[in-house]
Structure prediction request, 332 residues.
Amino acid sequence: MSYRLSLLDKSPIAEGASAAEALASTVEAAEAADRLGYHRYWIAEHHGNPNLASSAPEVVVAHILARTRRIRVGTGGVMLQHYAPYKVAEVFRVLAALSPGRVDLGIGKAPGGLPFSTLALKDGRDGGPPDFERQLADLDAFLGVGVPSDHRLAGALAFPEPRQAPERILLGAGVASAELAARQGWLFCHAGHLNGDPAEAERSFAAYEAIAGRNPLLAVFALVAETGHSARRQVENIRIFKAHLPGGRAVNLPSLEAVDEFARQAGVRPERVEENRPEIVAGTPGEVHAALAAIQRRLGVEEFVIDTPVADFAARLASIELLAGQVRPLAA
Prediction:
């Protein structure tokens, strides 16, 4: 096997547990990943969701960096539309100064929450989402030498100056995002866990490689257990509901109740809702690695980012440990 393994964590709150327990579990899992040889550990950003504790990933990243020794730690990703690129650059420059060579800045385009949360996050700013491509270019500039002299923010420099800049990764699910990342000189992570279309993954990989000359990362849902039956049973009821909204917009949500709540907050009625079973690689360590190896041969994947789609911490930790068992020397 010739691929690296990394992890994406949303800090899910298991039934009967608290947010504090979910965050403690995230830290424990990151410490285990550090020991086991995983390459990266990313924290997602979600807003207004009572089932997830990852509303401020930068804070969790700082804590995990202080509790680990080797693994790269970062965001998967900061939802840039809500923030000034200058401030994001400052935060990650500080993190990179505290933990040189170990900080990843993953950026996402989605809002990461329901409409009321998005409205609250842009309080005081009028209009719709900002120009994402402009925001990304500004962020890249503030992480580097600053914006050009003819820029509206010319003269603004972000500090401190770390010995090693954070690694920059754009998360996306299509060709446009892949091409944007390549043009900007960023790594790209194709969100295969959210868009399970193999043809779209192939197009994204080809588009990124054509410009960047290297392959992107691939995020996938995966769960490993002692038996294949146990692994598949734990994920058999997971669904994603794609709500198609007026104007051609579509949003993926975890339940019909979430679709109804999104529609209520947005003040729209979905034109249609698709119920999809996401692509989840589930099985024994051997079965999951065989499936990953098949994807690797097809796409040339050099690094998988694994999202384990269950809230139960014991199952998540077991999956992390079992998956690492066969590739620890490679990943390290």
